[in-house]
Design goal:
Blueprint lengths: L7 E7 L4 H16 L6 E8 L5 H15 L7 H8 L2 E5 L5 H18 L4 E6 L6 H10 L9 E6 L6 H14 L5 E4 L6 H4 L1 H6 L16 E5 L9 H26 L8 H14 L8 H4 E4 L4 E3 L2 E3 L17 E7 L9 E6 L1
Parallel strand pairs: 1-2, 1-4, 2-3, 4-5, 5-6, 7-12
Antiparallel strand pairs: 8-11, 9-10, 11-12
Helix pairs in contact: 1-2, 5-6, 9-10
Length: 346
């Protein structure tokens, strides 16, 4: 484990049988394991409604690791060692006994390890499940230890302002703010992490990073796959909520923000908020002029046939959910006045 990290940790992934864990989370954890960045004592518990044995869970995750690990396909010995840390717990998010069983599992690991492990409760679930899970965790006492209990909430955080505020209130009833981590995994991408250094440590770019020298800014994220197994989630979210209101706006903030006084989380967040406050509101009558929505039909991706969106699994045959979205924004401050920002994804 890297310097300053815990010696032992338990990661519970709610939605552990889903696409995010399969495609992103577990391949990244496997990479950390190979690079010797995981704690000496580590356990991962996937939680979900699927009826999976531990071995079935491990088999499913290995397919994701083989496809998405930056180290390539897993070697047999390394995978066996890593897979020994993986387990699955089937159940329902609304069942309070399920959370008591999770607490018992974690406590048994504490006893076996001879100490108290850091407990990371990772919610890779739709926003409508977050409140139920938080309340279940609170009822089981899994939020009580502020020193070692952490809850991680993935995007999207609600589906509008009212639901986002409601989620904040629900989480705040159960967890202290210091225990809550609202995650946008796009910020972990190397290119995104390099934006601040590219801007503020670059004597060539920073002097011309403003409206006098920049005509417009384009931020584009082109998908290389269809919705695949995410139909149930995606048909309730769409490209705007899935990509633009979180990932792309975060990148816009990094591109448009003023230099931070300090490179710490609170200062960078404050500078991002300044950008968001400066974005010009879009009146309802202006939406059709500055925004476009679309939906993909039958086609091919890298030579592979892809069905139309409405023909995807768990997608309504008459769905009006957008799979492509483009929006024009204006940031009304001294640096970016009259410079359009074009955000598009699909």
């Amino acid at each position: 484990m890297g310097e300053g990290g815990p010696d032992q940790a338990i990661l519970a992934i709610f939605g552990g049988g889903g696409d995010l864990a399969w495609r992103k989370l577990v391949p990244a954890l496997y990479d950390l394991y190979l690079d010797h960045w995981l704690p000496k004592r580590f356990a991962l518990v996937g939680l979900g409604r699927q009826r999976l044995s531990d071995e079935e869970f491990r088999t499913r995750l290995r397919a994701g690791v083989d496809q998405f690990s930056r180290h390539g396909r897993a070697e047999a010995r390394a995978w066996e060692e890593f897979a020994a840390t993986l387990a699955f717990q089937s159940g329902d998010f609304g069942d309070r006994a399920w959370y008591a069983a999770l607490d018992a599992r974690m406590s048994a690991l504490d006893r076996a390890w001879g100490g108290s492990a850091t407990r990371i409760l990772y919610l890779a679930t739709p926003p409508d499940a977050v409140g139920t899970i938080a309340q279940g965790l609170g009822a089981a006492g899994l939020s009580r230890d502020r020193a070692r209990a952490r809850i991680v909430v993935e995007k999207p955080f609600g589906h509008d302002l009212v639901s986002a505020r409601s989620l904040n209130y629900t989480l705040g009833e159960v967890f202290d703010e210091s225990q809550i981590y609202r995650i946008d995994h796009y910020l972990g991408k190397e290119t995104v992490q390099n934006i601040l250094a590219l801007r503020f440590a670059n004597a060539l770019f920073e002097p011309v990073w403003n409206r006098r020298y920049i005509d417009h800014v384009q931020i584009a994220v082109a998908e290389t796959v269809g919705v695949e197994q995410r139909g149930h989630y995606y048909d309730h979210a769409g490209a705007l909520r899935d990509m633009i209101q979180n990932h792309l706006l975060q990148v816009l903030c990094l591109i448009a923000m003023e230099p931070p006084v300090r490179l710490d989380a609170d200062e960078i967040r404050s500078k991002k908020v300044d950008v968001l406050r400066a974005i010009r509101p879009i009146a309802p009558a202006e939406v059709s002029r500055v925004a476009v929505r679309g939906q993909y039909g039958t086609g091919t991706i890298e030579g592979r046939a892809v069905p139309a969106y409405r023909a995807e699994k768990n997608v309504a045959p008459d769905s009006a959910t957008e799979t492509f979205a483009a929006v024009q924004f204006w940031v009304d401050n001294w640096r970016w006045q009259d410079v359009p920002f074009y955000l598009r994804t699909g």
